[in-house]
Amino acid sequence: MNLKERIDEAELILIGIGEEFEEKVICDKDAVLLAYDNLAGLLKDKNYYIVSLPKDGLIFDAGFDKERVAAPFYDEEEAGKEKWDKYLRWLSLTLNRKLFVLELGVGLSVPEVIRWPFEKTVMYNNKATMLRVNGSLPNIPVEISDRATGFSHDSVSFLSCLDS
What are the tens digits of pLDDT across the range 38-65? Predict the structure, then answer.
């Protein structure tokens, strides 16, 4: 099943944007913007939430609903807290719903923000599935291996090559 089909079949989509995006923007900002645009096209008319680690704020220049993006290392403190609280409320409504978790380029620099909570979300929601795309750390814990897939590929390139 391809990414578009997974997104189309899900009731809710949780996306994590990680360090690969921040590293890639240094040498290829256009590829990052294209990746964001392709993802935004796939998410059109879907119920989604994005947690983004990059500090550059480029995600806010893409076609995402800014109210559905939490960027804890970019947002100003008060606005960031409000967005994080909104994300946690949204996340609490995903239990026992058909949730697709898409993790893109999330490494281990701050695993407590995306990587571990996303794994835990999939573990507790039996209707959740996950795709982890990461060039160097695509590993999936055995506890969720029946509903999660790790794909060893640069996440920015992965999204840049999609037809949205």
Answer: 999 999 999 999 999 999 999 999 999 9
DSSP letter, residue 111 = T
Complete DSSP assignment for 25-63: HHH-HHHHHHHHHHHHHHHTTSEEEEEE--SS-GGGGSS
- Which three-class secondary structure state does DSSP give residue 155? helix
Q: Where are the domains of the chain?
A: 3-160
CATH architecture, domain 3-160: 3-Layer(aba) Sandwich (3.40)
Q: Is the pTM of this model over 0.90?
A: yes
How many H helices and E strands in the chain? Answer: 6, 6
* CA of residue 46 relative to chain centroid, distance: 14
Q: Is 147 exposed, middle or buried (0-12, 13-18, 19+ CB in 10 A)?
A: middle
Tokens 């076609």 belong to which residue? 63
